[in-house]
Design brief:
Elements (H helix, E strand, L loop, with lengths): L9 H13 L4 E4 L5 H4 L4 E6 L2 E10 L5 H20 L2 E12 L2
Parallel strand pairs: 3-4
Antiparallel strand pairs: 1-3, 2-3
Helix pairs in contact: 1-3
Amino acid sequence: MSGPRLQVGRRVVVDTVRLATEEVPGVLHLGPGGWRGRLAGRPIRVRVADGRVEVRVVLVARPAQDLVALAGQVRAAVAAALERLLGLEAGSITIVVDGVGS
């Protein structure tokens, strides 16, 4: 007999990714920048395959941010949240910085 198992819904994974991303200080908001924000789809896409979570996050950075460092911070925050809070293994985590806001 194996130990207890936890199953989490896709919405819980998306919310965890959203909260982890929004906690990174250089993130202005989720979603594409400019006029496309209203027309674009979801800013967070999640796929669970073979026990690993693949994530794609589209965001707008605050001004004067080192974008490479920001993407790394978001990636690390998302991976840590998935593993620590949900017990899921992070697979690929793609961060798309679609703009710099003011």
